[in-house]
């Protein structure tokens, strides 16, 4: 089966878009890692470093072997999404491949899922700070009231 110029170009374009989505997921994972504790951060960054190599390889293969590049980028992105499940902000894995979703839609959904987990981690940290401040205020107010009686 011969593939015309337009078919080859389309495959290369799809592969390039898959690599771009994988890079986006990698950036979101790095942002998520900054919000985690040092142990969780180290584990997530270790996985992200190995996935980074896969993304670079996929980027180099886009011109020569677009099908392989697209699969490699998709696997790398899925691996990042699975790694973010193991974080304290990890929730349900609802952004995986859904029925009726194209590959591009699923890739964007995985990036959004990682971004959402980062927002959840940020919210948990903010709540912890607010509770600590409220406890400090309550302790100060209670101790002064007790001394007046």
Describe the structure.
It is built from four helices and no strands. It is an all-alpha fold and 149 residues long. The chain has one domain. α1 runs parallel beside α3 and α2 packs antiparallel against α3. It is elongated, with a radius of gyration of 22 Å. The relative contact order is 0.13. Residues 62-121 are annotated as: Disordered.
Please give the structural blueprint:
Layout: H1 5-34, H2 38-61, H3 66-85, H4 103-148
Helix pairs in contact: 1-2, 1-3, 1-4, 2-3, 3-4
**Low-confidence parts lasting 5 or more residues at pLDDT below 50?**
92-100
* Helix-strand category: mainly alpha
Mean pLDDT: 80
The N- to C-terminal Cα distance equals: 93 Å
Characterize the biggest β-sheet.
none
Rg, Cα atoms, Å: 22 Å
Q: What is the share of helical residues?
A: over 70%
Discrete helix count: 4
The domain count comes to 1
How many β-strand runs? 0
Order of helices and strands: HHHH
Please tell me what the overall shape is: elongated
The amount of beta strand, in percent, is: under 5%
Comma- or semicolon-separated keywords:
single chain; 81% helix; 149 residues; mainly alpha
Offer a concise description of the structure:
The chain is an all-alpha fold and about 150 residues long.
């Amino acid at each position: 089966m011969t593939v015309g110029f337009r078919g080859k170009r389309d495959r290369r374009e799809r592969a390039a878009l898959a690599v771009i989505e994988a890079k986006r997921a990698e950036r979101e994972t790095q942002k998520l890692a900054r919000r985690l504790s040092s142990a969780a951060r180290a584990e997530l960054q270790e996985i992200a470093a190995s996935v980074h190599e896969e993304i670079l390889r996929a980027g180099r293969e886009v011109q020569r072997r677009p099908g392989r590049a697209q699969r490699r980028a998709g696997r790398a992105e899925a691996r990042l999404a699975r790694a973010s499940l193991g974080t304290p902000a990890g929730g349900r894995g609802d952004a995986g491949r859904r029925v009726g979703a194209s590959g591009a839609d699923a890739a964007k959904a995985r990036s959004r899922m990682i971004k959402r987990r980062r927002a959840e981690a940020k919210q948990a940290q903010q709540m912890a700070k607010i509770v600590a401040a409220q406890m400090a205020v309550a302790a100060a107010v209670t101790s002064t009231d007790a001394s007046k009686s």
